[in-house]
Amino acid sequence: MNVAFLVAKEGIEQVELTEPWKAVEHAGHTPRLISPEPGRVQAYHHLDKADSFDVDVTAADARAADYTALVLPGGVANGDLLRWQRPAVDLVRDFVAAGKPIAVICHGGWVLIEAGGVTGRRITSWPSMQTDFRNAGATWIDEELVVDGPLISSRKPDDLPAFCKELVETLADAR
């Protein structure tokens, strides 16, 4: 199964990209890096530059139908940049409309809010986003892992073990 990882050109919290990516690969699935721009994306360890990664397909060329699930890694700049880039928002909206699993962590949820994907849902995130989620019609919960239908959410890097486990189990159920 192909799993889409949607990120902006920069500002991705590296561990929130690489740990779920490794979990997806280890479970025998194929992660694919999607970004609004072609080329490479820049990850960070909080505010310090980390590694860069090759984009597999642009958001404008990606189709939700080609993927089993969507992962939205965090990073403040990543989340903020994605939410105003129309191809990214449209892709997320297509995943929401299809009812496909969406796994979101930390600040990755801003694009999900922009796509109208949280109304009536239970969700968690980095605490500073709770007002944004509530204003978008979600019930924000401060827990390590919140699962509401196809939506999987976690707050921060410390939550990655539970987040990755749930993502892999969700993919196994999708077979």
Description:
The strands form 3 sheets. This protein has a 7-stranded mixed beta sheet, with helices on both faces. It has a 3-stranded mixed beta sheet with strand order 2-4-5. Helix 1 runs parallel beside helix 6. It has helices at 14-26, 76-82, 86-98, 110-114, 130-135, 160-173, and strands at 2-6, 10-13, 30-35, 40-45, 48-54, 57-58, 69-72, 102-105, 122-123, 139-140, 145-148, 151-154. It is an alpha/beta fold and 175 residues long.
Label the structural class: alpha/beta
Radius of gyration over C-alpha positions, nearest whole angstrom: 14 Å
Write the element-wise H/E pattern from the N-terminal end onward: EEHEEEEEHHEHEHEEEH
Which residues sit in consecutive blocks of at least 5 with pLDDT less than 50? none
Q: Between the first and last Cα atoms, what is the distance in angstroms? A: 8 Å
Fraction in beta strands: 25-35%
Count of strand segments: 12
Percent helix, as a range, is 25-40%
Mean pLDDT: 97
Largest sheet: 7 strands, mixed
Number of helices: 6
Q: Give the overall form.
A: globular
**Major β-sheet strand ordering:** 6-3-1-7-8-12-11
Write a short abstract of this structure:
By secondary structure, the protein is α/β, with parallel strands linked by helices. Helix content is 33%, strand content 29%.
Descriptors:
single chain, 175 residues, alpha/beta, 7-stranded mixed beta sheet, 3-stranded mixed beta sheet, 6 helices, 33% helix
